[in-house]
Amino acid sequence: MSASENPAVPESGGVARPSVIQLAIKEKSALYAAYMPIFTDGGLFIPTTRDYRLGESVYVLVTLPDDPQRYPVAGKVAWVTPAKSTSNRTQGIGVQFPKNEKANLLKIRIEQILGAHLASERATQTI
User: Fold this and answer.
1) Distance from first CA to last CA of the chain, Å, rounded?
2) Using CA atoms, how far apart are residues 14 and 27, in angstroms rounded to an integer?
3) What is the C-alpha separation between 127 and 109, in angstroms, rounded?
4) pLDDT tens, N- to C-terminus, the chain (127 residues)
5) Which of 13, 61, 70, 81 is at a distance of 20 to 30 A from 107, taking alpha carbons?
C-alpha cells in the first residue's frame, strides 16, 4: 500500500483546500488492514507522517487490488494514529467516507473484494 500527498493549499480567500492523497492498495491483505467498517459509511486507514487534525477534510484517490479504476472520495479525518503510538501501530489517519453515492460504491466494491475476510479476527491498522 502506498500513499502520496499534496498538502492543503490556501485559496486566495485564505481558506485551505483539502489535501489530496493518492492511495494505491495492491493486495487484499493490505486492503483488509486499511478498511474501517466501524464507520457506517466506510473508511480507510492511510499511512502518513503528515500531521492531520480530527475533522479535517481530505480528498483521496483510491486504487484497489486488481481494479484499474480510481475511486475519488472527499472524506474527513476521523482517526489519528500518532508517531510512536502504543502497540507499534503505523502512523497515519483514518478517513471516514461521506454519505453519498460515490463513496457508497467504493464501500460496496471494497466489501466485494474482501468478501469473507470481513469477518476475520486478524488485527488491522486501527482496531
Assistant:
1) 18
2) 39
3) 21
4) 656 666 554 444 555 677 899 999 999 999 999 999 889 999 999 999 999 999 999 999 999 999 999 999 999 999 998 887 767 788 999 999 999 999 999 999 999 999 876 765 555 455 5
5) 81
